Amino acid sequence: MKYKIVKIVKGAQVAVSVVLILFISVAGYQYLTVALAPEYDSETMPLNYEIVGKGERNIILIHGMAGTKDYWKKDLEQVTGTYRLLLVDLLGFGDSPKPQSEYTLEIQLAALEYIITNEGFNNGNTLILGHSMGAVISLALFAERPDWFRGATVIGLPVFEGKDQFLEQMSSNSFFDKLAVSSYGKVFCMLHPLYIVKWFKPKNLTDDVFRDSKKHTWQSYYNSLNEVILKTDLYALTKNIINRKILFIQGSDDKVAPFVNVEKFAKSFPRAKLMEIRDGNHQLFLKEPLEVWKAIDNYFDGKS
Q1: What is the pTM of this model?
Q2: For the chain, which residues make up each domain, given as ranges?
Q3: Within 10 Å of residue 82's Cβ, how many Cβ atoms?
Q4: Mind listing the pLDDT tens digit for each residue in 65-102?
Q5: Looking at the DSSP assignment, which residues form a beta bridge with residue 149?
Q6: Which residues pair with 152 in a beta bridge?
Q7: CB-based contact 2:62 (threshold 8 Å)
Q8: DSSP assignment string, the chain
Q9: At 141, is the pLDDT very low, low, confident or very high (cuts 50, 70, 90)?
């Protein structure tokens, strides 16, 4: 009996050692990937993007945290005859460069503006469509370059009164959400290759979107969360566009970006429309993309 207990204990020790070695190896590799990456150079590191569609109306599509330009591609063929679409991988995500960078809002905006001007999407007849972190960036881009755009549509906008409110919201979500915003968040980000596997795939993500969510570094994720979402005061940032047309599309069951916060924020914009999607979650676009496109047509071109 004693021999069996000793054998079990030794087996457990080996198992724990193997797991620790795996965690340390993965985290170490992820850390070195960033540490050895070159510093960001805007002139030699343009964003990855593509233009689809031949319509007369322009739309720029900006994905959210851990997303890519392919986030928007579900049923996209239904609107390419109407729109000319600029799909962009943000710096540090998708197939765009992943350099050493602070990944501030200003850096993301400058990288986007370079592509937008080169491709002629700054003609004043362009709409912006952003999801989650991309919604924050969309409003910031609109505020910085109001003459470039007709208006903006934002889905799942994470607007908070401060970091404490954000942390309180995330603490009531999944175990992964809690870890991501905890004091261990940076290490947790380094381990993302271990938990972005099919067994942990959220039900509201498609297989393609979930697979693409690996395409970032711990630095691009962690810094973007803190620099773009947590440090951005959207109320102050958007004062110069409060009279412009903005369509807010928000799910009533969004656990990441609460509906009540967006409802309060949207009241600052007299010409804005708030569209509540009943039972919609943070990934509502993936479930009903054509409803989003219909709402954009109705609001900006009066096709209701």
Answers
A1: 0.90
A2: 1-36, 49-301
A3: 17
A4: 999 999 999 989 889 888 999 999 999 999 999 999 99
A5: 126
A6: 128, 246
A7: no
A8: -HHHHHHHHHHHHHHHHHHHHHHHHHHHHHHHHHHTSPBP-TTT-PPPEEEE---SEEEEEE--TT--GGGG-TTGGGTTTTEEEEEEPPTTBTTS---B----HHHHHHHHHHHHHHTT--SS-EEEEEETHHHHHHHHHHHH-GGGEEEEEEES----SSHHHHHHHHHTS-HHHHHHTSTTHHHHHHTHHHH-SGGG--TTS-HHHHHHTT-B-HHHHHHHIIIIIIS--HHHHTGGGTTSEEEEEEETT-SSS-HHHHHHHHTT-TT-EEEEETT--TTHHHH-HHHHHHHHHHHHH---
A9: very high
Domain 49-301 class in CATH: alpha beta
Return the higher-pLDDT residue of 159 and 303.
159
